[in-house]
Amino acid sequence: MNEILDFILKNKVITICRKVYGDDLMNLAKALTEGGVKMIEVTFDQEDPDCVRKTSEAISTLKDYFKNEMHFGAGTVLNTEQVEAAYAAGAKYIIAPNVNLDVIRRTKELGLISIPGAMTPSEVMTAYDNGADIVKLFPANYLGFSYIKDLRAPINHVKLLATGGVTEENFEAFLKAGLVGAGVSSRLCDKKLIAAGDFAEITRRAKVFSKIAKQYE
What we know:
The chain is α/β, with parallel strands linked by helices. It is built from 10 helices and 9 strands. Helix 2 (22-34) packs across helix 10 (199-214), helix 3 runs parallel beside helix 4 (80-89) and helix 4 (80-89) packs parallel to helix 5 (101-109). The two termini are 19 Å apart. Strand 7, helix 7 and strand 8 form a beta-alpha-beta unit. The longest helix has 16 residues, at 51-66. The chain has a single domain (2-212), classed as Alpha-Beta Barrel (TIM Barrel), CATH 3.20.20.
């Protein structure tokens, strides 16, 4: 999995896709890769009793189409059943909103990249000490850059990924603050643009994010 971790650290932008499936998701992925964004997190919609099947099928379809051009992961992973379903579908990384030690351990047992979500120093270190490869700092924009600076002062050895409120305007500031990348939701998985079929705008936005990311490879 070192090559997947390297891929994440190099490309830096993970698009967070919630409740987008089928042709819409495929067209979105094509638009993103045209813009240089090569990672998508397909989330488990916890309100949907059929979320394990839907997310697994989405990851499997994307993986079969894009091969190694893009790498896909599962998001909002809350239990080991979802870890195992994502693994079987071909996910390369597991992203969670919280620190669940069972999820981290099962992720690592299956040879996947573990990216749990945390906010406090204790949560960050608990995740890291139990095997997390990267810790998702959430909600990053709400916490702000003063918080990030203070957090990183004693624990700058932990790779942190910004998630929550990341835009074209503040993405570079997160990288300058020492974070290794970002999870981006509404700016790259804009449901209004998807519904309108305006994938050209998504590609345009992706190009902005990827251009910034390249400056910090």
